[in-house]
Amino acid sequence: MRIGILTGGGDCPGLNAVVRAVVRRSVKDYKSEVVGFLEGFKGPLENMIMPLTMQSTGGLIHRGGTILRTSRTDPFKLDNGPQRIIDSIARHRLDALIVCGGDDTCAVANRLYEEHGVNLVCIPKTIDNDIKTTDFAFGFDTAINIVAEALDRLHTTAESHNRVLVCEVMGRHSGWIACYGGIAGGADFILVPEKPVNLNDVVSAIKQRHARGRDFSILVVSEGARFDDAALNEQLGPQDQTGRSNLAGIGELLARLIERDTGFETRATTLGHIQRGGSPTAFDRVLATRFGVKAADMVHEGKFGQMVALRGYDLVEVPIKEAATGYKPLDMDLYKVSEVFFG
Ligand code: F6P
């Protein structure tokens, strides 16, 4: 077979491990050829390709980012976009496409499969862990380890200054990163998009800590978290430049409000893209490798329109359309565990 592979959406640690695994399995065990499209769906649209061999994809397992580069290009928003993808696949004599992406990329892939009959298989990636039908996507474990380490560091400076430190983390639609990272880093309050927060609850928790002699506090807030008070949320302001809203800002606002209402010196730190950069953890390297090998198997078995997913310890095949509609919210039982440590 001749197989194309692309990585779409935001990058995350583990993408190179996937590319390496797809190539190794396809070339070594199926005697197939693999070609990489560059920059997500922009690759097939603009004929940007890279031949991939076992040699060129060796030594990649520990490298962050994606050698194929990535973009959020949506062919359905462009003139004749889907047809240009189909033409590109034909031009390169490809039998199938492996698409590695998050919810948006999987939604595009699903439309290409359902509406245009493109033979493709998806692999879920996202640091946010909000893709439905898979327990975990790779990238998430690396992100939460970065958050936990950042919180360890924030702890020592918070203690030294008797400060409240607010750490804003990624998580556009869901609080997985905030909750896992926050529990691991011993957060004293965690704010997530799934549960609009009352400012007084946050303030009371901090005051309670001070009343029992803890003169510092560490809070973790998802970028997508909101207050239960519309007037406060309005202060965040719409910052929409590319059709996607730029969510960063809740951490700074929360810090200002906490300082105002408690009188305690408060600072905010936004981890931002640090959470997406650098080497994947061992867990993400292994998960990405398992996904890549399985996706290569699925392509060779003709299991198109499917996505590889993790259920418990096992890999399963699920229809892409189930993964591509909506988001997987944070497990609120886990949030309840984190609440035990608030205040
Ligand atoms: O979807 C992954 C993610 O990292 C989100 O957590 C975040 O909101 C978004 O990407 C940021 O996107 P960009 O890198 O385009 O600013």
Bound molecules: 6-O-phosphono-beta-D-fructofuranose
Please state how the strands of the largest beta sheet are arranged side by side. Answer: 3-2-1-4-5-10-11
Determine the mean pLDDT.
96
CATH topology name of the largest domain: Rossmann fold
Name of the CATH class of the largest domain: Alpha Beta
- What's the N-to-C terminus distance? 58 Å
Helix and strand content put the structural class at alpha/beta
Domain count: the total is 2
Q: How many β-strand stretches?
A: 11
Largest sheet: 7 strands, mixed
* Radius of gyration, in angstroms, nearest whole number: 22 Å
Secondary-structure element sequence? Answer: EHEHEHEHEHEHEHEHHEHEEHH
Relative strand content: 15-25%
User: How large is the count of helical segments?
Assistant: 12
Could you describe the 3D structure shown?
By secondary structure, the protein is of the alpha/beta class. The protein has two domains: 182 residues, Rossmann fold, CATH 3.40.50.450; 135 residues, 3-Layer(aba) Sandwich (Rossmann fold), CATH 3.40.50.460. Bound molecules: 6-O-phosphono-beta-D-fructofuranose. The site of 6-O-phosphono-beta-D-fructofuranose (F6P) has 11 residues, from loops.
Secondary structure: elements and pairs:
Blueprint: E1 2-7, H1 15-30, E2 33-37, H2 42-46, E3 49-52, H3 81-91, E4 96-101, H4 103-116, E5 120-124, H5 140-161, E6 164-169, H6 176-184, E7 189-191, H7 199-211, E8 217-222, H8 230-234, H9 250-262, E9 266-270, H10 282-300, E10 306-311, E11 314-319, H11 320-323, H12 332-339
Parallel strand pairs: 1-2, 1-4, 4-5, 5-10, 6-8, 6-9, 7-8
Antiparallel strand pairs: 2-3, 10-11
Helix pairs in contact: 1-10, 5-6, 6-12, 7-9
Bound molecules: 6-O-phosphono-beta-D-fructofuranose (F6P).
